[in-house]
Amino acid sequence: MEKGIKIVTIGGGSSYTPELVEGFIKRYDSLPVRELWLVDIPEGEEKLNIVGNLAKRMVKKAGLPIEVHLTLDRREALKDADFVTTQFRVGLLAARAKDERIPLKYNVIGQETNGPGGLFKGLRTIPIILDIVKDLEELCPNAWLINFTNPAGMVTEAVLRHSNWKRIVGLCNVPISIQMGIAKLLEVEASRVHVDFAGLNHMVFGLNVYLDGKNITPDFLEKMTKHKSDTMKNIAAIDWEPDFIKALGAIPCGYHRYYYKQAEMLQNELEEAAEQGTRAEVVQQLEKELFELYKDEHLDIKPPQLEKRGGAYYSDAACSLIDSMYNDRRDIQPVNTINNGAIASIPDESAVEISSIITKEGPKPITIGDLPVAVRGLVQQIKSFERVAAEAAVTGNYHTALLAMTINPLLPSDKVAKQILDEMLEAHKEHLPQFFKEEVLS
Amino acid sequence: MEKGIKIVTIGGGSSYTPELVEGFIKRYDSLPVRELWLVDIPEGEEKLNIVGNLAKRMVKKAGLPIEVHLTLDRREALKDADFVTTQFRVGLLAARAKDERIPLKYNVIGQETNGPGGLFKGLRTIPIILDIVKDLEELCPNAWLINFTNPAGMVTEAVLRHSNWKRIVGLCNVPISIQMGIAKLLEVEASRVHVDFAGLNHMVFGLNVYLDGKNITPDFLEKMTKHKSDTMKNIAAIDWEPDFIKALGAIPCGYHRYYYKQAEMLQNELEEAAEQGTRAEVVQQLEKELFELYKDEHLDIKPPQLEKRGGAYYSDAACSLIDSMYNDRRDIQPVNTINNGAIASIPDESAVEISSIITKEGPKPITIGDLPVAVRGLVQQIKSFERVAAEAAVTGNYHTALLAMTINPLLPSDKVAKQILDEMLEAHKEHLPQFFKEEVLS
Amino acid sequence: MEKGIKIVTIGGGSSYTPELVEGFIKRYDSLPVRELWLVDIPEGEEKLNIVGNLAKRMVKKAGLPIEVHLTLDRREALKDADFVTTQFRVGLLAARAKDERIPLKYNVIGQETNGPGGLFKGLRTIPIILDIVKDLEELCPNAWLINFTNPAGMVTEAVLRHSNWKRIVGLCNVPISIQMGIAKLLEVEASRVHVDFAGLNHMVFGLNVYLDGKNITPDFLEKMTKHKSDTMKNIAAIDWEPDFIKALGAIPCGYHRYYYKQAEMLQNELEEAAEQGTRAEVVQQLEKELFELYKDEHLDIKPPQLEKRGGAYYSDAACSLIDSMYNDRRDIQPVNTINNGAIASIPDESAVEISSIITKEGPKPITIGDLPVAVRGLVQQIKSFERVAAEAAVTGNYHTALLAMTINPLLPSDKVAKQILDEMLEAHKEHLPQFFKEEVLS
Amino acid sequence: MEKGIKIVTIGGGSSYTPELVEGFIKRYDSLPVRELWLVDIPEGEEKLNIVGNLAKRMVKKAGLPIEVHLTLDRREALKDADFVTTQFRVGLLAARAKDERIPLKYNVIGQETNGPGGLFKGLRTIPIILDIVKDLEELCPNAWLINFTNPAGMVTEAVLRHSNWKRIVGLCNVPISIQMGIAKLLEVEASRVHVDFAGLNHMVFGLNVYLDGKNITPDFLEKMTKHKSDTMKNIAAIDWEPDFIKALGAIPCGYHRYYYKQAEMLQNELEEAAEQGTRAEVVQQLEKELFELYKDEHLDIKPPQLEKRGGAYYSDAACSLIDSMYNDRRDIQPVNTINNGAIASIPDESAVEISSIITKEGPKPITIGDLPVAVRGLVQQIKSFERVAAEAAVTGNYHTALLAMTINPLLPSDKVAKQILDEMLEAHKEHLPQFFKEEVLS
Question: Are the C-beta atoms of residues B89 and B12 closer than 8 Å to each other?
């Protein structure tokens, strides 16, 4: 790597790309990126060009020798890459809108990474990611795959269990957002706060909170229950029951509301969908506006409007991870990686989201023993769901998909599960060829 | 034990007692019961006398030298007992009616052993059973406690974790009912059918079905989906989705409907409660009629009307277990016992319901490796619930009880959990002294 | 199997075969063997004919319709077999003699199934058994392989880990000999004694002893220390330290002497080798005499002299296992099978020797939780040894073989391990082709 | 802790104390020690005064406001301590000499922390350390106990399992010595080398070696086999078999020689004991000389002669650990701490020696999954030994002690174990009161 680093971003035409570019620019001293390849599919060519040109202007303004390449040829881009990041969305926001709308018709939460929506995003995404890792094996076997594509937990699980590729780290901005939120609530600098994260992607808990190294968890939980909730952009900020949080003894993430406040979240979604549209529909409009901004040839920085899009700390989390890996920093970051015994009641070979030491040879989880008794069951249920869903994505087996759908805790019954499954399979047919091969269908 | 066996039945005034007496009579040759002590509390004295006198008539008719003792003095009865069976109900059917009615007000399933009802039955029962095992330690340390009192899983868990008493077996008629149902469907004698049972009480799966030793599971599941469901008396027989059962690859028990068909079961309960009353209310009427029958001094057999009460195979399961223990038969029976590694993803020290070798020194589970991936999560969630609930029952801690309630998969949110908890604590106040000690309350 | 059972015995020319034939004859009513195929290799043809003709005379005398086939064509024999038993010895007793003699030169125990001898018997045997299971997959996929070939633990481990064949049971007469010894010492019928066996082949412990179902372990251990040891024919009966046995709290098997009495056993071996020859050398003479007897055309029963050979209860253990499998008896027998969680500190996928329920679909271990703390380490060390040895046998890798040799607890150092390894590799060259392929050697 | 740190060193009269004092002086900027209490027993008063006065001169020379207190009153010293270090030796070097001499009479390795010597050092030490933690609970419940007293693994195990005190870290200079040796061999600065350490105290492996973050393990092992061994002062540097090291695939520690080179090490010990005396006898002379030096009132630095004593990097390891804890550095150091799932085949509650994140709230192990198959058995055997030994130390049970002795892999038989046990119990009678209480003796 002496000659600088080659980074490939699959789904490079995403509106998030400027975040990433800004991150590389800021960290150039310790992370000297020489080539940044933005890859997309033909349908995304226009957006790739718009955002790619913005990236070039940003680099130029920074005066750095980073080459930005735009291409539709994934294999050309991947050759000898050092880090490959994935941030693509199969079926674009139109598919997400279906993931959100269809379940709501059945009074079931429609959400990008949870419930039926999460299942279908997985079914569409996993075959593509498995194709990509086959390319990696061939073209850049020493690269690390940094996956941001949701559902990141299920995708990481699928790669770990259904491919030979082990050099994958799944990344999410939920843990860092929790940490920042804690610092804000405590009115201290974020660097003074540490959190033991453990669980699964979008089902991660802050088990302990430390201020200057001292465990302040009970005090913090007390404080937390006295403030209005402040969640991520895409999750309704319905307040927790204070007594429940104290009883839980750990900090849930925003997505836990879909499970511990299922009724209220569903109600909220139904109202929002009626009034302003689902999140995908809102984001579609936001994206349109962002790309209009990006087209401006005078724009050569990340525009502040991007923050509304929802990926807070995205750049920080991603670049900081790549920087620590490249420089073997051995600092602690929360990532999705193979469990390897760090959480007792999750299978060793499964993906978990956990505070880990970040080294040049990948993340090494810090053992936590086990999750609190009260939360183990739900976490294990979501892990079971992820595993069955990943198997359905790989095999295209209808029964396996129905099993995944039915055991998801957001579904009210096997009957409703089947109804939603059938309607969604039909709606996403174009992106689910594995389910429509004649011989597998029955 | 040379001189015959002493059996003590706590809650001896139960309408089920004639089942048990019939069982002992039928098995007298191999299981020579010398003393049967029926114990009850003052409030149950009248029923105890009615059913106890029937028991005496049954024994007399059989011409056997079994002494039947009726007493309100538990400690007198327990002295040197060989087997102690527990079948009491704290708060009687009136309490059960509350367990069923109150949750329904919040659109939550009201059921004796699941959801809020199961939690509160546990909260009322566990302190009493822990009192009983203290007596056992002192008065009959070599006895075995055979517990039928529901929620049998949570009760067994509580004794294993919160007492020093390890000689407990929890018993339930669900597995034997499944086995009988399979034999009926296959139109073969029950003795030709074997089932590998594993899971938790009221959350047990038939993992494999054997006919004459041959594993016929997939064929049986196919056949099962083609027949109308036939469940236990207290569970609505709503049909499973055939595709779901095939995907599951194992036989669920009737109580699984509360989880995999939550919406339909709730709907059904709401309708039944409005039309004919909850199950407790129906049973209260049934019991009244039964005790009228029992009073008849000419009755000296178990009356056939008892079958409507719902405890099919109860006598068979109980007496067969005691017989195998007494005679060290080393045959295979499904019981609730300490896991000890038999099911990988359940803690070793927890109670599980599993096919076990029955010996004079207690049951020894046959290892099953692990549950199918798809069902692990739900089973673990119920086990987490049972453990937190047992802790709440022992400590009387409000927050722990709220935690148990909220993590139960039948609850829609932390807010509703708190509402139901508060109303039920008040409603059952009389039987929950541990929650109303001044110093613990907050 | 309606038309009778087809059994194939590989290594059919063994002097033990009459044991097996006698067992089948005695059990004909419940285990109607129709065809018994005795298979051997060209070098064993003469012995095959001698013992095969005796088998035919025994069957004829019994008046049973069992066809006895003698063949050198393994694949012909295997077609549609129901049970395949393996009792072959690669390199015959001459190889065993080397396994015993060479280590003694280095002051290391020379023994057929332990230490360097056990390792080399495994290295010679495992490739052959893996060839056999390939034939089974093709020619009789529903058959069960009942393996008696030593080292039975390592062989079972190798099949479980290095082939796709799971229908294997490893069988040994050590546990049944222990049980018989206990009954003899207690002066009761063997059927009144039960023992919880757990551990590995030739490293199995009797964890608990029951008389009529009552756990009498401490009393029995006390009694055991007061009597002269009585071991199997091939193990020197050096008495245990009484205090050690009481401290151990479990019954060791005879082979444990090689570990817990290493010094005395080595001394004894050195003396015996000098005076009367090693066990193989003694047995070679015994075998010669036996085959002389077998040649007698008037002999039509198992000759009593066979008992000196050392396979006490061999017929009982083998035929009783096959009978229970064929008839789905679900009784308890100690066998070598996949652990599957039954012993906590042994890997789930490894072979263990353990009391199991015997069914038509194979053995199912009864969970024991874990071995006593004191013995776990040694058992785990032998399991590590077996696994590394199996890998060496499969790969023919010199370093792996050295690793296996060095970590064996009977070896005094890496240096001596290497010396013995080098000498034994050379001595057994003919039967270890996998180590002498040019490309693998270094 | 704002006002500076209070450190208590039990066994403060040790010749090692100047190492520790030097470490605190060097790190004063980040680790502002305000009080250093050196505690010893009456028999050690003279040495305490000599070394304590040297400590005072060293502090004075450094011009730092550290108060050095010398006392025989442990409880006075412990009040409100922040860190308590233990480096005492029950029975002094005279006892160690017996630990080394007696086993040699039976042709068994005599060593301070392995075999019979390790067992007896544990039997003498554990009751004292359990007394100390009772004082800690009362007098300084927020302190951390940093234990250097050998056998450090067994001592940490005993505290974790037989007391309520969890704030203990066991420390050893073996891992840091390995790391320094690697850097020296690679001719690079130590800071560029990382090693994944895992195992038990004095049974730790370097599983992977990294240079600048890159895993270079196989290359390093190759290189390592080409150089003369360089071990710690107290272990004979007998070279490993190169092929064994390559096959092992991990770096053993010096003490592994007692197991993998048992024959040669015993031979070497026998020769050295005859020629120059055992290590204790050599050290006794060294200590005498050191204390002569320490008496010199002009000496105000750590004398260079101390290095011969054998505690290389002792100061570094100890002060660096305390510094990281005090400052919550979250860097990686190898320590003895509770396993908590970090090494799969060691019980969760046991002490392991493992690379851990060092925080203000103690060490958190980095999960390693499991040890290589080949070494698991030996490590588990030593852990079994440690656990049985700790139990013997606490109970004073003769049988338990015999069990510990017999299962130790350095013992050749139960008979020899008993002989050595009996002789050593008698020899150390004065320091083993728990074995000589009348009622426990038998």
Answer: no
Q: Are A and D neighbours with ≥3 CB pairs closer than 8 A?
A: yes
Taken in order C157, C159, C162, C163, the sign of the CA dihedral is negative
Pick the CATH number of D5-169 from 3.30.565.10, 3.60.15.10, 3.40.50.720, 3.30.465.10: 3.40.50.720
Residues of A with a catalytic annotation lie at 255
Percent of chain B whose pLDDT exceeds 90: 87
Strands (E), D189-260: 193-200, 203-211, 214-215
Query: Binning pLDDT at 50, 70 and 90, where does residue A233 land?
Result: low
- Smallest Cβ distance to C381: which of D264, D377, D402? D377
Are the CB atoms for C339 and C371 separated by under 8 Å? no
Give the list of residues 6+ apart from residue B8 with CB closer than 8 angstroms, or none: B36, B37, B39, B77, B78, B81, B83, B84, B85, B143
Measured between CA atoms, the residue of chain C closest to residue B347 is C369
CATH number of the B89-277+311-432 domain = 3.90.110.10
Strand partners, D357: D332, D364
Specify the pLDDT at position C2.
Answer: 52
Q: Residues B319-363: pLDDT tens digits? A: 999 999 999 999 999 999 999 999 999 999 999 999 999 999 999
- The number of CA neighbours under 13 Å toward the Cβ of B47 is 21
**How far is C-alpha D402 from the chain's CA centre?**
24
Neighbours of chain D (3+ CB pairs under 8 A): A, C
> For the segment D37-91, what is each residue's pLDDT rounded down to a tens digit?
999 999 999 999 999 999 999 999 999 999 999 999 999 999 999 999 999 999 9
Domain C89-277+311-433 belongs in CATH node 3.90.110.10: yes
Looking at A75-89, A233-247, C5-19, which range is the least confident one?
A233-247
3-class SS at C70? Answer: strand
Hey, are the CB atoms on B407 and A377 less than 8 Å from each other? Answer: yes
Q: Where are the domains of chain B?
A: 89-277+311-432
Right CATH for A5-92+102-170 from 1.20.1250.20, 3.40.50.720, 3.30.460.10, 3.90.550.10: 3.40.50.720
Each residue's pLDDT tens digit, D203-225: 999 999 999 999 999 999 999 99
pLDDT at position B232? 64
pTM for this prediction:
0.95
Strand partners, D353: D199, D336
Helix (H) or strand (E) holding C115: helix C115-139
B241 → closest Cβ in A384, A398, A415? A415
- Compute the distance between CA of residue C403 and CA of residue C424 in angstroms, rounded to an integer: 15
Name the closest residue on chain A to residue D215, using Cα atoms: A361
Tokens of A107: 């009074």
Q: Do chains A and B touch (3 or more CB pairs under 8 A)?
A: yes
ipTM of the complex: 0.94
A223 membership: H or E segment, kind and range: helix A217-224
Give the residue-averaged pLDDT of A307-321. Answer: 81
Residue D234 burial (CB < 10 Å; 0-12/13-18/19+)? middle
The packing angle between helices D45-62 and D279-295, to 10°, is 50
* Ramachandran area for residue A277 (φ above 0: left; ψ -120 to 50: alpha; else beta): left
Residue C313 appears among annotated catalytic residues: no
Question: How far apart are alpha carbons B212 and D11 in whole angstroms?
Answer: 72
How far apart are alpha carbons A339 and A343 in whole angstroms?
7
Tens-place pLDDT, residues D335-387 = 999 999 999 999 999 999 999 999 999 999 999 999 999 999 999 999 999 99
pLDDT at residue D135 above 70?
Answer: yes
If we measure between CA atoms, which residue out of A108, A109, A157, A87 comes closest to residue A382? A157
In total, the C-beta contacts within 8 angstroms joining chain A to chain D are 83
